[in-house]
Amino acid sequence: MRARLVLVAMTTAVALLMLVQVGLPAAATPERGGGWEPPEEQPLRSLADRSGLRVGTAVDMTALADDSTYRDRIAEEFSAVTAENVMKWETIEPERGEYNWQPADELVAFARRNRQKVHGHTLVWHNQNPAWLTEGVASGEIDSDELREILRTHIIDQVRHFRGRIWHWDVVNEAIDDDGNLRDTFWLQQLGPDYIADAFRWAHQADPRVKLYLNDYNVEGINPKSDAYYELAQDLLADGVPLHGFGAQGHLGVQYGFPGDIAENLGRFADLGLETAITEADVRMPLPVDNTKLAAQAQGYRLLLEGCLLTPRCVMFTVWGYTDKYSWVPGFFEGEGAANLLDEDFNPKPAYDAVHTTLVLAGGLHRHHRR
Ligand code: XIL
């Protein structure tokens, strides 16, 4: 009796095994040399792909040239890239009318070789502008009419140069302050509030197919600043301005806590017909690193990613650098750092595991398609 039971069990097991072998397409069985990998072992980009999401990173061009580990990992893990600096005005047009496209072109070529989309960052901002521009405005040498013409030319030249090679542009970066007022920049002072609509129209004119975004920090959850963006977006759309997306940068810190309503916030922009994206995620911490802070950091990344996954047409989750080896945080926030998914030796931190696991789960049976 016992022997029979064992035999039945063995036959069933063999039959099941055969069924599995027959039932799976040839390419899906690892023993036959196909490309199938269990989700747990897949890089972020193929996992994100199962949810119709692109996962991106900011790229430091010096590190890309000098550090092959840094470079290989970007190719392996990410399906989108953003220039951390080289598409900003001070790099693109260091002298008036003299363009320096080369570093940005290199990134675009790298992305193409690695089947990555490029998020363009950024056309209009109050930071990282060339001295000829800021000093010219400050001294009165450049008056408002001339400034408007300079802005128009810059946007049209830059968007045209990259036409067809950029997925979406951050057209105006950080246009609103934390109180929800238009940020008091030289753009606003010289050109008035219409500079925003103008910038979008010029960009659209130069490349009618590229998607155009507003982008800012502290707008992940619902607060006075994101409310102001919600109103601005409605006004722009009502005026027929070619606005297509809203980017929440996602610069968080463990000491501040995290918004719990990211999907609700991004969802209201989706309801306006806009795409959304997390464009610059990092979660910094006061140093030194400890396990509690690393766990909190993982939670911050998870909340940003889940907020995106839960929002229809949240098309990209981009981190602002992926290794602590190259990070803007220590240089900008005194005593803080360790903001990225991997440590300085490219070892995954709990945050990497959180992002990875969230993508594994999201791409399962109940995945939904956002493209
Ligand atoms: C940062 C870069 O990471 C630094 O290398 C640079 O020195 C300053 O700018 N919001 C943005 C990004 O939109 O462009 C900023 O990037 C980080 C904050």
Question: Portion of residues in helices?
Answer: 40-55%
Query: What is the succession of H and E elements?
Result: HHEHHEHHEHHEHHEHEEHEHEHEH
Ligands bound, unique:
(3S,4R)-3-hydroxy-2-oxopiperidin-4-yl beta-D-xylopyranoside
Largest sheet, strands/sense/barrel: 8 strands, parallel, barrel
Q: pLDDT below 50 for ≥5 consecutive residues: which ranges? A: 5-32
According to DSSP, the number of beta strands is 10
How large is the count of helical segments?
15
What is the strand arrangement across the widest sheet?
1-2-3-4-5-6-8-9
**Principal-axis shape:** globular
SSE class = alpha/beta
Determine the mean pLDDT: 92
Rg computed from alpha carbons, rounded to a whole number of angstroms: 23 Å
Report strand %. 15-25%
What is the CA–CA distance across the termini?
A: 57 Å
Nutshell version of this structure?
The chain has 15 helices and ten strands. With 371 residues, it is of the alpha/beta class.
Chart the SSEs and their pairings:
Elements: H1 2-23, H2 44-49, E1 54-59, H3 61-66, H4 68-77, E2 80-83, H5 89-92, H6 102-113, E3 117-124, H7 131-138, H8 144-161, E4 168-173, H9 186-191, H10 195-206, E5 211-216, H11 224-238, E6 245-248, E7 251-253, H12 262-271, E8 275-286, H13 291-309, E9 314-319, H14 329-332, E10 336-337, H15 350-362
Parallel strand pairs: 1-2, 1-9, 2-3, 3-4, 4-5, 5-6, 6-8, 7-8, 8-9
Antiparallel strand pairs: 8-10
The structure holds (3S,4R)-3-hydroxy-2-oxopiperidin-4-yl beta-D-xylopyranoside.
